[in-house]
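Model the whole thing, not chain by chain.
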Amino acid sequence: LSKIVRLNASKFNLTLSFFGLASLIGRLVGKVALITGGASGLGKATAHEFIQNGAQVIIADIDSELGPQVAQSLGPSAYFVPCDVADEAQVADAVDAVVTRHGKLDIMYNNAGVTGPVYPPSISDLDLDKFDEVMRINVRGVVAGIKHAARVMLPIASGSILCTSSISGIMAGLGPHPYTISKFAIPGLVKSAAAELCRHGVRINCISPAPIPTPMSVSQIAQFYPGLTREQVAGIINRLGELKGAHCEDADVAKAALYLASDEAKYVTGHNLVVDGGFTCFKNLSF
Ligand code: NAD
């Protein structure tokens, strides 16, 4: 039955693209997407974008209070599953729960991430236990997401896996050492996985956004500016990524994710889509 549903959904998408109607009706009609870290920030914005485009979205997040509220606010096309990405068994369970309920997983977005401690700033004082904590979520959590998505996508030779890196994965000095190191790892593991998965009909790409005010970035930058309001800190983050008066917004990342997740990107894999308005082309950070 799930095979028939899958075939019909992809025929429906092809028909829509043929008549140029996909952008009117939705570019992810019939798709099932699991988004880690979907309860906040970029994950939440992407969940909204995917739903607007016809997808069924499952928000997998460690925040069991916020997650269900956000899923409910997104309407009947979203629901929440609790998941700590640092725990492989929980990632496997989340993927299996989706496949049991929907018969498939079309899109896996490994987006959950943390900044980790910003102090002490020097690598000479790095606390390696804290370093491990960041790596467990930002790298191991992504590897677990790729592994278990691939486990269910490979047998049907179909699927799109996305991961969130950062411009901190392109240039150093924007975030603390563990965060920077973890984000540099993502394009590498995406390439490594793509080299295998491309031969089996499964795509994998990552997105590297510029700074955007979200709970994560605001709490990170606020540590350097005690006493400032959330809005003032958000202003600092926006100025950091500003280009010609514009700055990166969560919707910019959501649109990039929409493209990579959709069948429009059917020949795109192993790619790092940088969403930074040119930031990494010309900015030269010096502290
Ligand atoms: P956010 O804090 O708004 O959202 C992160 C979400 O991940 C939260 O809902 C949180 O509960 C969840 N999460 C944290 N640890 C988890 C775990 N162990 N298991 C499952 N869920 C967990 O932050 P955001 O800015 O939206 O960050 C999303 C991704 O974007 C991260 O990977 C981050 O590194 C990346 N990113 C953010 C920015 C930025 O400026 N905001 C820029 C580039 C990249």
